[in-house]
Amino acid sequence: MTMINKAESLKQRQDRRFINKETQTAAKYLRRMKELPGAPEGMEPFYRTLERIYVNMDHIEKAPGQKTVGTYCVMTPPELIYAAGAVPVKLCSGNYTAFSVGDSVAPRDACPLVKAVAGFKQTGLMPIYEDCSMMVIPITCDCKKKIAGMLSEQCDVMTMHIPASREDDDIDEYVRQLYQLMERLENVTGNRITYETLAEGFRKVGYAQYELSEFIRLKKQMPYLIRGSHAMAILNSSSYMPADVWGKALHNVNVSLKKSISEKKAVTSKKLPRILLTGSPIVFPNVKIPLLIEEMGGIVAGDETCMGERGLWDPAVITDDSFDGMIRALANRSLRPCPCPTFADNSQRIYRIKQLIKENQIQGVIYHVLRGCLVYDFEYRRIENELGQMGIPVIRLESDYNEEDIEQLRIRIEAFIELIKLRQVPEKATAVRKSF
Amino acid sequence: MKIKRIVITSAICAGIAAIAYFAFVFPFYEPETSNFEVSIDRLMSFDYLTALIPLLIIIGMTTAGIVLVVLLRRILAKTDKKDSRFAHVRTGRQKGAAPKQKPVWFMIMRWIIMIAFTFIAIWGGLIFGMGISSLSVPVLSCPWNTEEMTSSSCYYLSHLNELFELPWHSIVIFFASTIGFILLLGRAICGFLCPVGLMQDIMDKIRRKTKTEGIKMNDKMYKAVTPIKWCLVLILIGLCFAGGNFCNFCPAVAVSPVLAGISTSLYVSGFLMVLVLMAGFFKRRSFCMVCPIGAILGFFHKISLFRIKKDTQSCTECGACYEACPMGIKMIYTEREKVDVTSANCIMCGECIRCCPEDKALSMTCAGIKLYSSSRKKIMSGYEPDKNGGLPNDNDK
Amino acid sequence: MEKYYIGLDGGSTYLKAALIGHGRVIDTMVRSTGIDNNGTAKKIASELCKRNNLKPSDIGYIMATGYSRKILEVADDDISEITAHAYGVRLTAPKEYRPGMIIDIGGQDSKIIYLDGSYGVKNFSMNDKCAAGTGKFMEVIAQILETTIDNVGPLSLKATNPCDINSTCVVFAQSEVISLVARKYDRCDILAGMHQSMAKRIIKMMKKTEKGGDILMTGGGALNTGLHHAFEEELMRDVYVAQHPQFNGAIGAALIASERG
Fold first, then answer.
1. How far is C21 from chain A (nearest CA, A)?
2. Which chain B residues are within 8 Å of A343, Cβ to Cβ?
3. Which of B55, B167, B258, B275 lies 20 to 30 Å (CA to CA) from residue B31?
């Protein structure tokens, strides 16, 4: 079969290869995640979603005729999209195959996340991208700004200006932008946003956050009930599931975690070094770092990344029951608590990390930097200094969306985990040696 | 720009001072005969209804005013090109209900205490006797009502010349009780006891129930209001020496004596009460921002027993407390060093703690004892699924 | 009874073992790895014991490090080279050394480890994809120049006018050296040039931001006096050489073993 099938055009051949490679990579990482021991019961819906999106390359689960709206970053309130009767899908990508395609579209120094998005858009093969009636892109960095321009050639794109500070005027301005977003959403979906639908949107997302709060509370328990990589799979799949469906699935995980408490079950009886993962987003299938940490004998006890715990953590607090009050609550939630380095003064991130260190009894921090992700790289120095004063070791891991650096990362992560282990009280040998 | 602001502020302050000075020339309501008699029998009689007339007028005017403002805003919103799209949702009557967190005991207690104290301040003397009537509580509850169970410090604070004509032991009791209450409760008096505060809170509740859009103030507006507060403090203390009578100007006079059954003339105070209620409707506790008594209480915020404490590390700077705070205290979410975030403006209403989504990030203490702490669980309680595991639904309400 | 501890460093070509006890290095041993890593490790451990009149029960804990650490069954646990080297320095560094930086030049890789004041690993950078700047590189050049690796150092110190070797890759450097030989350059000058280029290459890996403390050389490369000299010249400061440099990893592993046992 060396002869090229004439019926298959060049484009078709390329597409077939892309799909093969993409699905293989996704399936591999999904398998590695599943193979990691100690997963709680009730993980299947999340694995199934990731499999559906990346391995089967299928559309997201939604009601027939329902529109989907693509979002990026944590600043786009999903409540509004639900209020307009559409389903939000987070399109920030971690895909290696799409990255290699996007590499030829975007400049060399662009961040891999944006390259992967560009790659998917270039091939036009990923249903979650192609289904979108509209994309909402908060301009959190230069790469996002340019990708917004590139995407707008093929899709209806709305950019959201993210201010550099979070003063009252900035919030007011963001409220105005949210009204504009609502107008665009109404035009795209053909539905009107009313008080009732908005309240319903709040309930959907609020329910997901309710279960998430419970989940994080359980996740903090000692000894550990769940591994960080599994938690990452759960949190990542929230991007591709309607909030209420995700919430219900998470509820089952919470129930099984509570059961493990009463049965005194834990992930492992060993004292694993507890590691906090922070920095650039970690999106499936680029989960090599959490997987490596846990395969090398550490545990990702907390994460401060925007596709992880941070993404859904902060609730919109309604302080005024009017329609405008709810929109204000969204604007407030989108900007003020967000520890995204896009803001000029982001000292609150350090407090957030310190709080996570305290709550999860973190012993070491791994600072993940995607190559080209300047804003996160900028903040490394400060966080290193602050944590250095606390005596918490930090390492910076720079990585790209490919598998070539896995061995390098492995050595670095292993040495880091050993560094933490050496600080612990060593496990003593007991048996007397008879021979070698 | 700065000069312009100073000129405008001084003009407003001068206007307020002038209105205060000439308060008696703007009559709001004058009964045929003044009647200062208060008794339980009178409360039961038809006369009581006639005594209530000014209050009813105030309520009527307030309602009319609010409706007028809402209608005006709707017209403006509809004609404005930018806002017209959402004019109907923002200004019309809305179906559905926003998710609400479940009631917390602290707020229930606050309401009970507020209502109870208002009751005491108006009718308490009739029921429980006048045993402690010489004690002065620094609240805005009118001492013209002679049946107040406790007296209100505002009268002698605004009539200092009369205070020093009293026998010395009365002066001592006045100062001792006033300062005692201030030290003990601080501005918790505003949040827990003050009847004018209660009325404003009721107006705010009505607004929330009707889902009417309020006025969202930002830090610039809060700053602009501050000079008016100091101007009112000057008027409160200085008016008696200039020959005026603060009581003709004070909005509280239009409520508690009237409710107690006193038929008396209302001057500009009646109009002001309408304004206070309308402002209280659109912006929660808006009068408290300029209240002179509150400002005086605020001087002692550093030593009062009630404190707002913050866990500076667990705070995410989400600003929910600032959004919720009726007094616009920004420092509560920006503060990252000090544990004690009690501000001179804080009225201890506990709203910031109720709206704080981080566990134990904010708490209220009294003499070191924790009264109320923020909790994630409480804030998310509105999203808790019902027993069937479905989403919480408010459609049946 | 006082226990003894063994550290095994399973490198690419040699298996190194160190025996420590009473807080000092008692004996070291090196064997060619061969095909059977595990068997060699067992043999070397029992030989070490025999040579020092010890019974297996006297050995409290055995720690493995190096490339083959995961497959050495004789070891109780394993540890990465980075940590092992950082630990080994505690015993092998000269007294006047203040912890700062370790340059480790091994057979197939070279690494730089940054230490804090208490010998903890702060950071590290390594070169593990390329043989330039490693012991293997020296071996290849020595072969071309018809000498042995042991003579490379002393010979290069005799140089009067070191050549420039600019290629960073082993293969290219090899041909560059061959052409220098053809042009009748002195062997000593070529070797000195080679050491300079190696030092430059490794110095490039160093982080400008990591300052403070002294520099220590470990690994087989540290035995090369010419390279040591080149480092001092290029860095323009003193560079210390560890005792038993090629056993530093094994000693470190043994030291960690002594904490466990």
1. 16
2. none
3. B275
